[in-house]
Structures are given as C-alpha cells and as structure tokens.
Amino acid sequence: QIPQQGAEGNLRQLLVEALVSAGRVDSVSMVMGLHPQYLSSFWKTQRLLLRMDGPLPYHKRHYIAIMAAARHQCTYLVSLHTEEFLQVGGNPAWLQGLHCAPPKLRNLNEINKLLAHRPWLITKEHIEALLKPGEDSWSLAELVQALVLLTHYHSLASFVFGCGISPKEEQDGGQGCQPPSPHSNSSPASDDSMEGSGGRDAMREVEVLMERMKLLQESQLEEEGITQEELETRFELEKTESLLVAPSEVAERCPRSSVLCFVEDPEFGYKDFTRRGEQAPPTFRAQ
C-alpha cells in the first residue's frame, strides 16, 4: 500500500509535529510514515502514554519502556528510551542496571517477564502482590499505566525487529523528515541487512535441509519395506535438528551488556502452552 497522491502534505505535517514535540523523528516514525493514518494513531498513543497526564512520572514511564524492550533484547528501543529517560530528568544511576532502580520498579520484573513470554501464566496473585499495601506498593492507577506501557513496548519491539530497524540506522541519519521511498534501498530492511551474515546463514540452512530431504528420498528407493510414515518421521527429525543447531556466527553473537543489565533471568522465554501429550498450564482467558 503506497500513500495516495496528496498525502505527502499530511505526512510532512505529522513528521513536523513529531519533531516539535519530541525533538526528533525516529526510525519507527519514518517507517510508519508509509501509512500516514497509522502513524497518526501511533503518535497519539505514544503521546498519551509518555507525555500526557497520568499517575506515573515521566522518567518512570521511560524506564518501564526500557524494561519491556530489554526483555525482548531490542537494543534500538532501549537506546531510544535511555536518551528520553535522561532528557526528562531520570537518575543516570538507574541506567547501570535493574539492580540500581528503586524496589518499586524492580517489583515489575516478574510480571514483565511473564507478559513478554508466557502471559497465560499470569494470575490474580501477581496483581495482588504489586498492590499489597507497603512502602513500595503500586496504586491501581499506576499499575494499569505500567502494564499498558509494558505490553505496548513488547509489541513495538516486534515491529522494530520485523522492519529491521537498528540503532546504527539512527546514527546514520534516522532523524530526517524525508520518509523512506518504497522503491529505493533506503528502507530499514536494506540490502545490507538482507545480505548480511544472518541472511547467508539462513540460506545455508535451507540448502543443507534440501540436501537431507534428497538423501532421504533416495534412501527410500534403496531400502525395502520403508513406509511413507517412517520417511516423514525421519524428515521431521532432520528438520528439527537442523533448526535447533544455530550457525556458529549466530550462536557467538550475544546481546549487548547495555541491554542485559535490565534483564533478570534472561534464559526465561516463550514455551508453547498447547503441547500434545503433556499437562498444559492454565490458559489466561478473557471473555
């Protein structure tokens, strides 16, 4: 979908407003600029969450955004909101890691972890623990805003990854007011990102998998008595093993310490809750 003729004026106005209100036009806004109506809604949401009246101070809102983005190891959003956090008067000491933040914010870690990876495990006890009266307790209004911020930035991290946006692009001129052209190579998913080591590794994996499929088909002809079910079982096993073994270049890459310092229990991740033949954990349902 390409912006209709005449939409450039609306887009330019949106980007100017973003520049005036935030002092910058980040790469997320540049990508969303291809869909001006969506960008308009997004900016209204961002403004309400981060800059309008609410129970949470501005610096704590940005710190919660950092916590959420770090849970998905999204260096772009962590870097962006680290700058915002300092601009609104946040304590630089908090940026040394989650252990340096006030206990009230650290108490969000557990529910942040579950919301990011296994939200169906959240129970009313998690909410009650945060609302329990005490020096570091949350008010209901504060907690609602905090949870909205967490889920918003979990989702935004997926958008950032899906568009290939990285902190490097911000340094290379992501603050300009010219939206990326859908016909040029200036979009975030540039040739460099597609042809980098990750793209080559993926292609190698596919080639290896195809070779294994070919060998299995040949073995079916050579072996007597092999059934279609046995062949499919072998293929699934080969496919699973090839996907589980990460290429060496990818395996050696680890998240930056500037992101991991905001994460506790980094090994905790998504686990399928619909596995067959196992006791499934209770699913969090809302009518």
UniProtKB/TrEMBL annotation:
It is found in: Cytoplasm. One of its GO terms (cellular component) is cytoplasm. Its main location: cytoplasm. GO terms for biological process: cellular response to L-leucine; cellular response to leucine starvation; negative regulation of TORC1 signaling; positive regulation of macroautophagy; regulation of response to reactive oxygen species. One of its GO terms (molecular function) is oxidoreductase activity, acting on peroxide as acceptor. Keywords: Cytoplasm, Oxidoreductase. The keyword Oxidoreductase applies. It comes from the Eukaryota. Pfam families: PA26. It catalyses: a hydroperoxide + L-cysteinyl-[protein] = S-hydroxy-L-cysteinyl-[protein] + an alcohol. InterPro entries: AhpD-like, Sestrin. Residues 170-200 are annotated as: Disordered. The keyword Nuclease does not apply. Belongs to the sestrin family. This is SESN2 protein. It comes from Semnornis frantzii. The gene is Sesn2.
